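Structure tokens please, single chain.
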Amino acid sequence: MKTVKIRPALIGATTGLFLLLMSMVSPSFAQTEWNVGISGGSGGIDGFIFSMGQYYGVPERDIVVIRERGIYEEELPVVFFIARMAGVDPGLVADLRMRGMSWMDITYYFGLRPDVYYVPVVVHRYVPAYGYYNSHPRGTWKRGDLRDRDIVNQVNLKFMSEHHRYAPGKIMRYRNEGRSFRVIDRDISRERNVKDRDRISRNRNDMKVDQNRQKKVRPNEGVQKLARPNDNKFKQGNGKAKQAYVHNDKGNGKRWRGN
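Here you go.
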């Protein structure tokens, strides 16, 4: 039996080609992993991060990278909000936060004012999570009026109310009940999905009702009109009946009679 020897050069070429193909395919594999993690746990991309990505117009992967640097989850919207308002990279905002700077200090660092966090909403009753609305009207907010947690509440309130088109007052009430913003985002999404399903169901029922109405025939429809005895004579004469001048039985009168 003849032994076939494989040349080292051929092995090297095959290995190089394999590595080249893997380098070309690996980005798509990485993208697939990020996409399937949307509904996953803490290591993937969940609904809260997905909503942030849609609202701020950034890839969900970039949000996860900022989170992995040590930024708390509910502070992530603050990072991207300040970055958008200041026109800087979110990584720079995260670096300042990780150095121990407060959110208000970072706000002034980029030349912003506390009013950027204001959300127009009427507070009908005292809500502890947003109590500063009663004591600090818009235009009077100063450096020391908003603490870190206040800024977190304000930014998430703006983000969720605008992204979901949801009443800010309801979000404030949910926050006051102790719900996290992740839970609030989930509950609003579920509520909207239920409303969408109900609306689709109502539209389908309305379409069925309209179709049934169209199928029904009115009582007089479908009944052919009976022809009168002289109709054929009129048709043959093009609608003009021949007339004759005759006497009646008594001979003292005249009348017209059609033939």
